[in-house]
Design brief:
The complex is a heterodimer.
Chain A (H helix, E strand, L loop, with lengths): L2 H10 L3 H18 L2 H18 L7 H19 L5 H13 L8 H16 L3 H8 L3 H9 L13 H11 L1
Chain B lengths: L2 E4 L1 H9 L12 E4 L1 H9 L8 H14 L1 E2 L4 H11 L3 E3 L2 E2 L5 H12 L4 E3 L3 H8 L1 H12 L4 E2 L1 H11 L3 E3 L1 H10 L9 H14 L6 H11 L7
Parallel strand pairs in B: 1-2, 1-6, 2-3, 6-8
Antiparallel strand pairs in B: 4-5, 4-7
The chains are: A mainly alpha, B alpha/beta.
Chain lengths: 169, 222
Amino acid sequence: MKISLSVLDAFEQNGKGALRKLSDHILADGALKNDKSAIRLAIIAHALSNVLEKAYYRTRKSVWERFSRKIREGLQGVARGEPLIETLENALIELDENFGRYSDNVLHRSKIRRGSNLYAWGLTPTLASNLVDVEENEILSQSGQTKMVDEEGTSVSAEKRLKNLEELL
Amino acid sequence: MNRIVCDASSIITLSSNCLLWLIEKFEIEFCIPPYVKKEAVEVPIKSRRHGLDAMRNGNFMTKCMKVLETDQGMRDNLLKLANSIFVSGKHNFSIIHYGEIDALTVAKKHGINTVMVDEKNTRLLLEDRPLLRKIMERRMGHKIQINSEAEAEFVKLVGDIKVVRSSELVAAAVKRDIFRWQYPKRELLRNALFALKFKGCAISEGEIVEIVNAVAPLGGSE
């Protein structure tokens, strides 16, 4: 996955916007090909963008340097075809643990966001939840707070749907 | 007794709003495929965050819902068809999981013509594939085509299934005074529908207004 070098480039140049765009691109590609590794890389890129947005991650120099080194080595290894996606994920989890966040960490939040995007793009929530490894109710809950349904238009009117149900009752 | 098959999304949104109890107040049988029980109970029961919710759901499902067996051959065929309908370049675009297809399979196998599905994509797959294709293209920025042979075969098998949501169930409950609190019907229904929406029921604000006006019009009696 040579695109991981673009992710590294964007990370090292503090490119939050570039990381988001890369994440979108990798996620779309991964979704179309049902490629879970690509989707995991897309989540990592999204999480890195969120990490760059928060200045406090850099307040502890040794923690930040260790994290950056792991990200650099991990993304370079992924580009060479090495199975280092999990190492990258662990680096993100470990970074947040240094700041007191355990289950609700930056990686988990990116998984939910990207899962919600997959659902918005047309995948069912069970499939999306399997691809990003979060529970379906987290994806539904996240999606419910967006305007995705309002933007899409209706196939059958709500009144007709209610009538269909009432015929059964 | 009439029956409805529920998928995991409708159970999740009702349960998240503590409204699952409405199901036992209607004189219809609510059924689920085995996968829904797994998704709503057996998987989240192990998590700290959702474990208690899963237990509550499990308790309720054992009491008030019927698990119907699926037909694996039919399910696998439907899954293959559904995941061949949308194509990007040379790739079939897989959009649905066997868990969601299970609800449709169980409905077909047991002669049930209505499913309760809160998430939008299975519903659009059944009702409006061109709209779903448009949404995919616009959001993903990739050209998507419909394989009309796979589509025709899919529609032939399950195209007659009607979809309702938990929002319609709640609306019917308010209309029939099954769901009656001290607040005006109109406000109760509006708040309940928004609560369902925020927990993942795919209903738009426009549809909420439509349902509220249909069930509790302004100036109507309480």
